[in-house]
């Protein structure tokens, strides 16, 4: 009987964890908001910082723009120098074709991440301004929450 109760508890716990996972991340750059969405419902919204050159779509490495379009999480890095990071599938097929046509390097290593490990002051230094090289940044407590709700393969839609 004890074994059966343990199995039932584990099944309920696994189902509860699965229900907490989101389906899509939607970013509205102009609003500096990231939405965590499940079953077409906003579960949580987070304030974000984006690239230092916030207007427009990322075209090339070093332009400090945050991409716009459809991507997905293609990796999770628990040892990121920016607390935790969810790596994005940038550049996608379209980004590569546009860059190729214009003889540009589209760049890579775009992620949703927390704050750098500078000090406790980093929570205040980066709050409220765009400071990344093209990534999307959250404070560390929000990043931990998003990390726990996200799995590899989750879609990301980044809107202007």
Explain what this protein looks like in three dimensions:
The chain has 160 residues and is of the alpha+beta class. It has one domain: L,D-transpeptidase catalytic domain-like (Beta Barrel), CATH 2.40.440. Helices cover 26% and strands 26% of the residues. The protein has four helices and eight strands, in the order H-E-E-E-E-E-H-E-H-E-H-E. It has helices at 2-19, 93-101, 122-125, 140-149, and strands spanning 24-28, 33-38, 41-47, 69-77, 85-88, 111-113, 136-137, 155-159. An eight-stranded mixed sheet has the order 3-2-1-8-4-5-6-7, covered by helices on one side. Strand 6 (111-113), helix 3 (122-125) and strand 7 (136-137) form a beta-alpha-beta unit. The longest helix is centred in the N-terminal third of the chain and has 18 residues, at 2-19. It is globular and about 40 Å long. It starts with a helix and ends with a strand. 29% of the residues are buried.
